[in-house]
Amino acid sequence: MINIFLNMNAFSGTISLGHLPPNLQYLGVCNNKLTGKVRVPPGVSCVLDGNENLTVDDSVAELRFKFQMACMRKTAENYHVYRSRRHQKENCCFWMGVTCQVDIVIGIYWSQSDSVTIKSLAWLPPSLQRATLIVKRIYTHFEMQRLPKHLRYANFPVCGLHGPLELRTLPKELAELLLPANNFTGEIRLTSLPPHMQKLDLQSNRIMQAFVCNAQLPISLEVVQLFSEKRPRFVCLDGKNVDRRVCRRKFDSLYD
Asked: Do 29 and 112 fall into the same domain?
């Protein structure tokens, strides 16, 4: 992710935000001398305060806000999820367990004790970077390709998630994916993990077979935990022995 800080300079004239880097997260250009009208691209936190003759076309920001709210409503029941009564307005950034940056959702943390009912994981906001759902009985088919593209950390233990696991379509920025004690079945392919992946926890699922390409495992990878009662069969695609970071015994660890 890219953050650009150009605050308190002497930039003047008009500015176009139509050709920003695709992985830009934050742009700060406040307290300059910019003029004209700009539209803020979706998914970018843009701070433009202090430019007296610069106006922001709110249409894009408004559409982004409405889409974010629609995503959150499809993700969770918002009954009794506000932090307090005084925050009961139509803004998911005031929901319990939700972290926002400039009104953009970047984090969700809901545990078993939180009075939040999860309806679906197919509509997580595209801006989401960290998601933790602990012992939330979702019982849904989990589609990896529907995960937000900027997601870096996902922890969904004991959530009743099921289906096959397609690990070749994970978000490119994902570093940790923790899915222990769910109901995933079938086979997995450890042949095209995200380049910065560090931890993959799939223990206590029902994975029967794992195809592993040692040469394609990320350098950053610390451990892939696959322990289950029926130990999955390993198929190494480029050697006799699977990389020791890929574990299927309960006490296997990179740090043994």
From this structure: no
The model's pTM = 0.75
Give 4's contacts (C-beta < 8 A, 6+ positions apart).
24, 26, 27, 28
Which amino acid does the sequence have at 233?
R
- Higher-confidence residue of 85 and 249: namely 249
| CB-count burial class (<10 Å; 0-12, 13-18, 19+) for 62 | exposed
- In the chain, the number of structural domains is 2
Whether residue 97 sits in one domain with residue 183 = yes
> Which domain range does residue 221 map to?
77-247
Report how far residue 21's alpha carbon sits from residue 24's, in angstroms, rounded to the nearest whole number: 5
Does 71 fall in a domain? no
- pLDDT class of 107 with cuts at 50, 70, 90: very high
Q: Cα(first)–Cα(last) distance of the chain, in Å?
A: 33
Residues 123 and 191 in one domain: yes
Closest CA to 72 of 103, 41, 46, 42: 103
